[in-house]
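quick one, two chains, predict together pls
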Amino acid sequence: MQMHTFPEISAMKLFSLARAFALVLGLAGTAAAADLSVVATIPNLGMLVREIGGDAVTVRVLAPPNRDAHYLEAVPSMMAALRRADLVVSIGADLEVGWLPAALTGANNRRVMPGQPGNFVAADQVKLLDDDKPADRALGDVHPHGNPHVDFDPERLAAIGRALARRMGELAPAQATEFAKRAETLAEALAEHGARWKERVNDAPGVLSYHSDHMYLLRFLGVKELGTIEPLPGIPPTAAHLRGLVRRLREEPPGVIWTSNYQPDRAARFMARELGWPSHQLPTQVPMDGGFDAYVAMVEAWLDTLDPP
Amino acid sequence: MKNILPSLLALTLASGLTVASAQEADDPVARTRDPLDPPPMRLRALQLAERDVPVATGTEFNPAISVIVDAVYASDETEAPPGFEFGHGHGHGHGHGHGVEEGFNLREVELTFSGTVDPYFDALVALGFHEDGVEVEEAYLTTRMLPAGLQVKAGKFLSDVGYINKQHPHDWLFVDAPWMREFFFGDEGLNEVGVQLTWVPPTETYFRFGVEILQGESEGVANYIGPGRHEAVTLLPGPGGAPERVRWRADHDLAERDGPRLFTAFAKVAPDIGPNHAVQFGLFGGHSRAFQQMDAHSSGRLETWDGDSTFFGLDAVYKYDGGGVMGHGNFTLQGEYIYRELDLRYRNRQFDSFSSLGTLDEGDQKWKQDGLYVQATYGFAPRWNAGLRADLLGLTNDGFEDGEAESFGTSKRYTGQVSYAPTEFSRLRAQLSYVDMAHDDHGHGHSEEWVFMLQYVISLGVHGAHAF
């Protein structure tokens, strides 16, 4: 007669069981995470964090590059990302106002609440354009803080990068000098490219853009702004507004029409037909995992459209 | 409406004043301004230099204020489905328990103040101006600084059980609430005074667990009346033969049960299925130590039900947001199921003297009932969406008295709606329902009804972020 022994559960077995359970819950991911876990609202900010943080950070971007960050909904996957974050980097100036506050409320993470070191707002670091417009809904979905699309301006982006490096340094003091150094390198590269870009568009035609999201780049470059296809920010163009634009722009020297890849292009195609101008629809954000090279390539793709044929 | 406007005005003025004084405190320009001048529209411009000083995001004014006007036209003659008449008139013909009456309704003017109180609390106050007065719809604080993924909400709030319960009427995708919310939680939803504790674990998949301790007053699962008196007045022949008014009065004997009486729990899980899709599943349940109903007849007869209730349910929602213009291409599918058990002592009594009630009959009643809805909406063009909804009430609809079962029928409602939203701040909606209502006679026989509704919703002030 053979004795039945109770199967011995080894420590190894227990460990692998616990690990499997943790994997299912996604706990293992956090244990192996880098020093600083950062959530960036838009891909251009993700790029900034990645360039400054290097290997010392993991970045999760919430808004895909083909989506207008103004019109997202707070969904649980955002809350899960924010729950585990040490730092959230947003544009601010009401760009994410429709979803980020709700996502933060659902995340139950005190580290990243507004006012905490783990909540970095890019628009608070620089002076915004159009920050003196009255906050009147009759004038469209106006942001009382000013135009939020600061990530499209090499100068402001450099300034935001420096401030972000300081903030990241507060959160991970061991890497503070490294962050500051990398932010400086980035600022220098942006200045270098910026100077080159300015020179390149010396005699460029003016630009008619769909939305006011190109304003910062055009001001930086010194390229003439010919207005926006939207009659008011966030309000789709009406026939009367388009007719008025065509009448006015026929008097101007020929320009170029710019539409971002997440904006409807019907009105731009109409304007191009009426005016005989070239029209271009391109991304204003780097890919989800894009770095500085992707940012430069993105800006230069827009500049290419200003080159003489 | 006459009473609403002055109070609305007063509140708006009062809030304007507090905003102005808050600005003056930190604005050097404001101090030199004539105090009678209107407050400036904006604070100072942001400084040019890098500041690296965190400022509150997205709030020029604290608190943020919004006003929502929700007006409805309804052509609706339906009454409460059989088995669900508690609190809806119990078959006495005044059963339009939808918070909506026949014809034009200013269903709600909702004034909401929200903001961050201090580093530790956020707060929200929503006041509802109805045609018969002002009501505090919600007034709660939520913690911002609890560790370990914990959050406490305290005050009066819409419970987080299920999915649609915590939405305000103007957020619904249809003019009216699904039957499930209306008949299990009441016209106001499960809206209670109490505390809620939630926990979000630091996992890749989103989980949210919560428990609530609530006072327990909601119609469908926690109706509470408490001790009181039943009164009737009749005319009897007096000494000279002339009629004389006689008052009959007795305790109705509904038990006193101190709050908190209602305890709920919920769990939600939301796997990440990419940035353009979102899905969430929920489980919920609750128990109320008191469920009391009373039906006083003009004959002096009094029916009372006194006991407790238990409920549980499931909810699921899927949303696709493809980034089209003004909601074009967006798709939402959501559904919820709820089951309740009421354990009640039924008593049917009549006055046997001027000050006491005699029992005609009594017994132990048990109710087992459920309800569900499934709805879908699709943005078929920019600014436009259309939706379909199916409501089923009483798939199980059984009442047991002293062990003897009586089964009521299943009522069904099918609804279609079309909405047009010129901007995110205004919306018009038309809705048509076909109601297939079970009759009270043991599940046999049905009546058919068409219900038509029109709605407009306008929103003034800040466009706050919507919770999922």
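Chain B touches chain A through 60 residues (CB under 8 Å).
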